[in-house]
Amino acid sequence: MYHSIFLIGFRATGKSTIGKRLAQKLGWAFLDTDEIIKEKSGTSINTLTKNGTNWLEFRQLEHNVIMELLHKRNLVVSVGGGAPVTDFVQPQSGKPFGELNAALFKDRTKTLTILLTADENILEERMRAFEMASAEPTRPPLDKESATRLAEELKKYEGNPQKQKELVTDEIIKNSMDHLVLRKPLYAALTDKVIDTGKCTLDNCVEEILEFFNTTSA
Hints:
Layout: E1 4-9, H1 15-26, E2 29-32, H2 33-41, H3 45-48, H4 56-69, E3 75-78, E4 89-90, E5 95-96, H5 97-107, E6 111-117, H6 120-133, H7 144-155, H8 161-188, E7 194-196, H9 202-217
Parallel strand pairs: 1-3, 1-6, 2-3, 6-7
Antiparallel strand pairs: 4-5
Helix pairs in contact: 1-9, 2-4, 4-5, 6-8, 7-8
């Protein structure tokens, strides 16, 4: 019997939305690793990563949170998109945090890991709608070079917040899609169960996960 379900996958694949509904169906608690990191650090992800220029503290906190949650029961967890696939290296071990986190998932036989995916066009639409509706950017760029370039570009439009928001959103999407190409095979190696959230309704996605959970838990 599985003690917990971890939902992995790229940004905008629906991990939090599906996770919350899934937890309700199971009568379990729902947790989001990004939200836990913000609570533990007392700040936003943008601030914690210095607007995407330094991810070390975030990735270490993320690794610690995953280790902690993998030993708990009756949880549905939405895992940050980069957690099991990032190439950002932990200084102490000399290994990428993605490799360290992936090993944690593979070692936990009582944890069901589900990969959520969606077509790239759908992901772009979801990210754009979400970012443009948010008061401030929800995610910084995923690498220092992109973050630095964006910061310089924003200086040109200091008196035009709408233009700045559009530029940030465009950069977030472009940067995300570039990383998705590299991360796809890494995600696929982590689990045999994949749910395409662009091809099923919320309820249908949840029911498919529950069916797999009940079948494999028997």
